[in-house]
Write a structure and sequence with these properties.
heterodimer; A: Rossmann fold; two-stranded antiparallel sheet; B: mainly alpha; two-stranded antiparallel ribbon
């Protein structure tokens, strides 16, 4: 995904001022932060997962550097919104708990239940975002497959899913081609005032939300 | 490979010194139990993280100054370490078996941490996080500097204690030749309790430093094993100053690699260094 992003960026004419790769489990982000600061990019595109993005932003803060724009591939969603350095962070998403996603009844009910149960379970972050929505979507796909095929047989369910589009809280999915995700359902979100808000495409943007720069 | 600016290089080296100090601080207790007690105590890593989580709990839930953990956690861990040693001393445990037993204890500690604090990431947020100052164009973060100062003072303190105090001499004699030391009146059992307790207390100190500078998650316990083992082996088993010196060498070599080449090369450089040093150092058998 990261290398694909790099390829597309080059095709679209973005000038790459620095490219760095680090080992999974890297602990010291100080030298990486110093190199990014030295390169002075307009956008830092980070193919990170989990807390790596937070660790890099922490290291940047320690040398008084704030990137003008920073994108994270798979950030830990809660820590990114809670960290002051995470402000204006960009990432991809399929679902966020704001309109228009929660305008349909099932999504609204799911968000309400998730919020309640996450709070009761004392989770540090009770917000529905990508992972929770993807998990719920998986159940929706299974339910639609079983109902549509009127069977619990794996092959019959698979056949039904390949031939039919399935409505889920993240959109209409299809399984008849490569990728198994359907049409382009990815959106861009940004941390604004401590919450993830979709900023692109405009039709899915949170009410009043637009891309913010530092 | 690119040539970095002098400032970038110095900043990277400083970063390497700081993380190397943490490697050394974690490695100190591990190396002492390995060298003097002949036990490869993997549970040391579990105790480091338990110390980190306790510091987090004190600061986040009980609103205490995180540095107060330095007063509370080490004595508590001394008792835990001595108790663990008391149990282990009931059995004739070989170094290899100690590795297996302490791995089991580490898994128990990891599960305990996960049970109490969950597998979610925990970050000790305090006013120390944002504290830093500049020396010329170099940024010096205070929590990392504190870790370095603690690592230096504790390593030199342990070195002096082992060299100049009766307790230190007794510990060294016990490690050198247990039966002869016993003939001179050294009680190996009580010495081992003191040493294990002391090393656990050191794990507690390292845990506080870890929580001040890193985000905590239970699965991270094992992420530190390789590099800290490298620092201990490079620094010498039972050495007080060796793990710190080796930790800084590893940290700086990784940092320079990150500054001049691809950061993904950093572990290769540090572990190649370890292999080369082990092959070339004087006195190898």
């Amino acid at each position: 995904m990261s290398l694909g992003g790099r390829e597309i960026a080059k095709k679209r004419g973005l000038k790459e001022v620095l490219f760095l790769e680090w080992d999974f489990g890297n602990r010291d982000f100080g030298p990486i932060a110093a190199r990014v600061k030295d390169a002075s990019p307009d956008l830092v595109w980070i193919g990170d997962i989990g807390l790596e993005g937070n660790m890099l932003l922490d290291a940047m803060k320690k040398i008084d550097y704030v990137p003008p724009l920073h994108f994270h591939l798979y950030p830990a969603p809660g820590p990114m919104t809670k960290s002051p350095e995470g402000d204006k962070a960009l990432a991809v998403t399929i679902f966020e708990e704001h309109p228009p996603f929660i305008s349909q009844g099932e999504a609204a009910e799911f968000v309400k239940l998730f919020n309640e149960r996450a709070k009761a379970a004392n989770l540090p972050d009770t917000t529905v975002e990508v992972q929770a929505a993807a998990s719920y979507t998986a159940w929706q796909i299974l339910e639609a497959g079983v109902r549509g095929a009127n069977s619990l047989d794996d092959k019959k369910i698979a056949e039904y899913l390949k031939k039919n589009r399935i409505d889920t809280i993240q959109g209409r999915l299809r399984f008849d081609g490569p990728g198994n995700y359907g049409d382009d359902l990815m959106k861009i979100k940004q941390v604004q005032n401590g919450a993830w808000k979709v900023v692109w495409p405009q039709t899915y943007a949170a009410p009043g939300a637009t891309l913010q720069m530092r | 490979m690119t040539l970095p600016s002098l400032n970038l290089l110095l900043q990277a080296i400083l970063s390497g010194v700081f993380i190397g100090a943490l490697y050394g601080l974690i490695g100190l207790g591990l190396g002492l139990t390995w060298g003097l007690l002949r036990q490869i105590n993997l549970a040391h890593f579990g105790l480091v993280f338990l110390g980190g989580y306790l510091s987090y709990q004190m600061a986040a839930a009980w609103h205490m100054d995180p540095l107060l953990a330095l007063v509370i956690v080490p004595p508590l861990f001394f008792v835990i370490g001595a108790a663990m040693q008391w149990v282990l001393s009931r059995f004739a445990i070989t170094p290899f078996n100690s590795l297996l037993v302490s791995f089991g204890i580490t898994v128990v500690i990891e599960s305990l941490i996960q049970g109490i604090w969950t597998a979610d990431y925990r970050r000790l947020e305090s006013h120390y996080n944002a504290m830093k100052f500049t020396v010329g164009k170099l940024y010096v973060p205070v929590p990392e500097l504190l870790t370095l100062l603690l690592a230096l003072s504790i390593s030199f303190g342990v070195w002096a204690a082992l060299r100049y105090t009766d307790l230190g001499k007794a510990l060294r004699a016990m490690a050198e030749d247990g039966p002869i030391a016993a003939a001179f009146g050294i009680d190996a059992r009580s010495m081992s309790l003191v040493l294990a307790g002391g090393c656990a207390a050191l794990a507690g100190v390292a845990g506080v430093c870890l929580a001040l500078t890193f985000t905590l998650t239970p699965s991270q316990i094992f992420a530190w094993v390789g590099v800290v083992f490298a620092a201990v082996m490079l620094g010498g088993l039972g050495s007080a100053l060796g793990p710190l010196a080796a930790g800084v060498v590893i940290g700086v070599s990784e940092a320079i690699t990150m500054a001049v080449a691809s950061p993904s090369w950093a572990p290769i450089v540090s572990f190649s260094l370890l292999i080369a040093m082990l092959l070339l150092r004087p006195g190898k058998t």
